[in-house]
């Protein structure tokens, strides 16, 4: 009888669980969190929205500071100012060359740091972190002093070398994170099957770390294209896109600056979307 009563009580407890407390009124914590997140997103995306919006502005002359009306003329003639076009071409050239060199050097350093153990490895680790933590003003002044000591005239070459100096660190750190998750037994299996070390690298190792290399290259290219402070120290008479924009802000801001900035943003978003779709298709496959 006691057993039957206990079973009945247990069954009733399962069928009629203790009701949960129902919150009455707004959840102020949730509401505050959403408001804070919305303000942060607004803070981040409002400048981008202003740039895109003012690329369609119709100002009187070059002073693109206040909204004067909607027009597509700016987009029909984005290269109206030769100096601006030349500055953008130089920035793209510097970013492409410095990124190509930095990707090779940074990838080799990342593989060496993870794959091998050698004397001085900790020192290299420290030197890789320095460009990431040192203020850009310090980096720019140090690089300028270095070039002056070697009697190297400031210009295109010094800009490229300076960009490579800080890009290598970003690429090495990004690729190293990818390489650390690499299964090195795959290399051993390839070598055991008779493949040469070179063939193993290009057929096994490289394809598996390519996503990390591509991500590092995109980051490096963006950092180079955006850099102002270090470039300001070592540019000499050369004018990159950030330097041109800085000079233009002091006098006037032609809407073509906003047009080219918006175009760069659109291209970046397209590449990001393409990369995301490619990864998803690869995962699904």
From TrEMBL:
Which Pfam families does the record match to this protein? BPD_transp_1 (PF00528)
One GO term under biological process is: transmembrane transport
Where is this gene product found?
A: Cell membrane
Q: Which part of the chain is the ABC transmembrane type-1 domain? A: 88-278
Assigned GO CC terms: plasma membrane
The UniProt transmembrane annotation reads: 31-56, 90-114, 126-148, 154-175, 208-235, 255-278
Instruction: Please report the record's description of how this protein sits within the membrane.
Output: Multi-pass membrane protein
- Classification via SUPFAM superfamilies: MetI-like (SSF161098)
Principal subcellular localisation of the protein = membrane
What's in the keyword line of the UniProt record? Answer: Cell membrane, Membrane, Transmembrane, Transmembrane helix, Transport
Taxonomic superkingdom: Bacteria
Q: Does the keyword Repeat apply?
A: no
Q: Would you identify the family this protein belongs to, as annotated?
A: Belongs to the binding-protein-dependent transport system permease family. CysTW subfamily.
Q: What is this protein called?
A: Binding-protein-dependent transporter inner membrane component [Streptosporangium roseum DSM]
Look up and give the organism this protein is from: Mycolicibacterium parafortuitum
């Amino acid at each position: 009888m006691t057993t039957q009563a206990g079973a009945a009580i247990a069954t009733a407890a399962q069928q009629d669980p203790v009701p949960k407390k129902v919150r009455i009124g707004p959840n102020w914590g949730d509401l505050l969190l959403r408001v804070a997140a919305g303000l942060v997103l607004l803070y981040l995306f409002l400048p981008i929205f202003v740039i895109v919006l003012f690329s369609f502005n119709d100002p009187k002359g070059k002073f693109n500071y206040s909204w004067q009306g909607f027009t597509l003329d700016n987009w029909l003639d984005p290269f109206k100012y030769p100096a601006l076009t030349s500055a953008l071409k130089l920035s793209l050239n510097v970013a492409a060359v410095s990124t190509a060199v930095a990707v090779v050097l940074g990838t080799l350093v990342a593989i060496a740091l993870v794959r091998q153990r050698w004397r001085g490895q900790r020192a290299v680790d420290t030197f890789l972190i320095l460009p990431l933590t040192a203020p850009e003003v310090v980096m720019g002044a140090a690089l300028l002093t270095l070039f002056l000591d070697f009697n190297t005239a400031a210009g295109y070459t010094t800009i490229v070398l300076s960009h490579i100096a800080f890009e290598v660190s970003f690429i090495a750190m990004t690729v190293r994170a990818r390489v650390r998750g690499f299964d090195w037994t795959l290399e051993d299996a390839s070598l055991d099957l008779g493949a040469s070390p070179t063939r193993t690298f290009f057929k096994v190792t490289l394809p598996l770390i390519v996503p990390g290399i591509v991500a590092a290259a995109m980051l490096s290219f963006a950092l180079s294209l955006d850099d102002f402070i270090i470039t300001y120290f070592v540019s000499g008479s050369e004018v990159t896109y950030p330097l041109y924009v800085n000079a233009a802000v002091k006098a006037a801001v032609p809407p073509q600056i906003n047009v080219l900035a918006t175009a760069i943003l659109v291209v970046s978003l397209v590449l990001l979307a393409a990369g995301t779709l490619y990864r998803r298709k690869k995962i699904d496959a």
